[in-house]
Amino acid sequence: MITARAAASFDPVGRSVATARSFVRDTLQGWGFGDIVDDAVVLTSELVTNAVVHAGTSADVLCLRTEDGVRIEVADRYPEREIPLQAAAVNMGSPDREGGRGLQLCAALAACWGVEYTPTHKQVWFQLDLPDRPVGTRAAGPSLPADLLPLADGRVRVAVVQIDRSGAISAWSEDAEELFGYAAEQVIGKPLTDLAAWPHTPGTSTGIAEALQLSRWEGSYGIRGANGRVTPVYASHLRVRDTGGEPSTVCLLVRDHERAVLQTPLRVPAADSATLSEGGQGTDPFEVFIGSPAPDDLDGLLQRTVERARDMLDGDSAFLLLATDDETELEVRASTGLPSARQRFARVPVEAGPGRYGSARMPAVHDDLTAVPGAVPLLSGTGMRSVVTVPLKVEGRLTGSLGVAAESPARYSNEEALRLQFAADRIALAVESARLGELERLRRGSLSFLVEASDLLAGTLDRDQTLALMAQMTVPTLATWCAVYTIADQASDPYLSYVLHEDEERIDGLKALLSKIAPPDPVPTPGARVWSAPAEAAHEAALRTSMRSLGRGEPATVSSGIGTTLATASAVGGETVVLPLVARNRVIGMLTLGKPTDEHFRQEILELAEDLSRRAALALDNARLYSERMAISQSLQRSLLPPELPVIEGVEVEVIYRAAGEGNEVGGDFYDVFPIRDGAYGFAIGDVCGTGPEAAAVTGLARHALRLLAREGFGGPAVLERLNSAILDEGARSRFLTLLYGELWPQDDGSAVLKIVCAGHPLPLRLRQDGTVEPAAEPQPLLGVMDDLELYEQTVTLDPGDVLLCVTDGVTERREGTRMLGDDGLTDVLTTCTGLTAGAVAARIMRAVERFASDAPSDDMAILAMRVPGLHKD
């Protein structure tokens, strides 16, 4: 028999779901059906969501009261959207999916339910029965055997202590005198903190003074008695106002082992209470709150948690934050009813600083956030007025915070805070386990990322390539866009060196924007710091562009310029952080990472970016040092080579030079051709023992000494003897030197006369026109070995068409396994060069040497070819 009814209609908008929950909650509370309110609100929320969100129609909610319970009907105007019939053989799918979840809850929570169709409506109804309880009981625990009841020593005394707004005792009851031994006149006016022995549990950091300011608090601490001993007590604090409107706190205290007198009983669903009273197994409280099965991933678990918390307290929004490892900040990880894209991964400090989250470590209820602006920074500007927040703790350590908010003020009381804390206590361990699992996966991925990054950065010493690698490794793995600033030296300003965006079409606009704003300050402090300049500049540029467009009276369609500016503003409108690039105790640049509009970086991503910046800074500095030293080395090496070959009338001259070793332009081999005086030219080809910079130093000494001595009028033997003395004067730095030195005089008849001294060097080869090859000099001692050196010169006349070939031992000692080119191999190649120019001869010799072996040459090589073409015309 129906004894009362209530009905309401709701528009097809998302906000109607919260309004429908409030309607059902208020109706059932008014009927005295508080025991089934939670189940009714959860089922109504799911069914109204199906109607106004998924079906897209308005919803009609009808509540019918009977003697045994309540029937609630939810009707929509979309009968074509079929609902599966429940039967034993029908699988209604996973509870995680959107469709069908309301029906699963009906099947799990309702005594009975059903679906009715009309031509214009579809109606889903469910029946909730009242629990069968004795008359007069509203909420009760199960009856227990006498030996399980709490033990009280004699008379149970409840001390009543009143504390004024300053924390001083203003009232002290007789039971308080009996429990602690102080008369009222001994303690009135003294701060309670003088008597309280507050437990400093790691992770709480809330003292007795803070607890007295809370609207409601329960817990254990100690009171120092008149005898000096501390009596453990269980206390219940209630914040009230006296007749004068002044706030004060009433404290009820009992001995700790008698806490059952004051402790608020845990809320257990009626079905569970009945089951426990019968000795059966109760439902897992975690599954009661979250549902089964629980999501495997952390994000899924957190999202379902905030949705269940919102529904449980009939809120308009809910949010969950996780603490960083050091518990100094909280990071938004899940929300519902809030702009999640703007808030996700946003961070707020716990203890101090602007926008601190002061209520994170203790349950808190705010009746009106407009009276305490900034108390919950996450809700600023969202329209939420009242909120209840509770901590998530594991073994006394703060791991997160769960909150539910509503648009109307004074929605929540301490009862809702206790209910939410009960739920938070049940899910805290599961959330922490899932968070640690996610953190472990992220750390494994971070390790692989850093190993790969280190390999890539170590694989190049090119500065530009290092800059490109830095940006490519961060985008899009760590950030949406990246900019690298470099600092040449301490006196230089940061320079924008590289810009990258995951959308290539945004790179030019981003580069132009960053070029117009001052670079970030090169602060050496490690870690990421927020840089707001790009977002502010992008917003101002977009605003100016739009205003100019409107001022010119252009059509309403957005021009390409405006579109580009707005797209750039959107691309850099999120969080931007700067990490210093510090190498060898000097800031050499900054790595700037950015997110698009209203996005924040995760703490783990920032830590990974910091690790990457340290490696990248060292790689960039190594590339800089390598480039500088390479430039110096190449400049010095180029000074050891003759600037250019002179043009000798009547003689063709060609030189090919190859220095062994990466980055070497000059090694131990050298050559030179230079004018001595009118009609006379000197030429030389030599080989210093060894390769690299040490050999190049002797090379410079030999080449410049030859020019100087020859131009002073010394003959060939005298030039080499003085050079020998100079090499020996170098002492420990001296090196052996083989040298072929000669002087050349072109003749009027087309021939050329040469005077040659071959000091330990491979003999020069003469190629005649008939193809015969013969040595053009005799071997003599090399330089740098003995003091008394007697050398002589030999005269050779090159007839028209003859070629003189001079090489270093890098040519003749070219090896392939056990084979060596040798003098014979060189002679064989030279015999094929009859009739070729000097350039062609040198090129054919070098090609033959390179093809003789597959490996790169291990020794410097120099080839000097001179040909007398003669006076006849070809």
Number of strands: 34
Q: Judging from the principal axes of the Cα atoms, what is the shape?
A: elongated
Mean pLDDT: 80
Number of helices: 21
Rg result:
46 Å
Helix content: 25-40%
Main sheet specs = 6 strands, antiparallel
Subunit arrangement of the protein: single chain
- Helix/strand structural class: alpha+beta
The residue ranges in which pLDDT falls below 50 over 5 or more consecutive positions are 81-99, 201-205, 267-283, 552-563
- Strand % is 25-35%
Distance between the termini: 129 Å
Strand order of the largest sheet: 7-6-11-10-9-8
Feature tags:
6-stranded antiparallel sheet; 34 strands; PAS_fold; PPM-type-like_dom_sf; PPM-type_phosphatase-like_dom; hydrolase; SpoIIE family protein phosphatase
Task: Describe what you observe in this structure.
Helices cover 33% and strands 25% of the residues. The termini are far apart. 36% of the residues are buried. Helix 9 runs antiparallel to helix 11 (414-458), helix 14 (533-551) packs antiparallel against helix 15 and helix 17 crosses helix 18 (716-728). It has 21 helices and 34 strands. Residues 81-99, 201-205, 267-283 and 552-563 have low confidence and may be disordered. Strand 32 and strand 33 (819-820) form a beta hairpin. It has 874 residues and is α+β, with helices and mostly antiparallel strands. The strands form seven sheets. It has a six-stranded antiparallel sheet. A six-stranded antiparallel sheet has the order 14-13-12-17-16-15. This is SpoIIE family protein phosphatase. Residues 160-190 form the PAS domain. Keywords: Hydrolase.
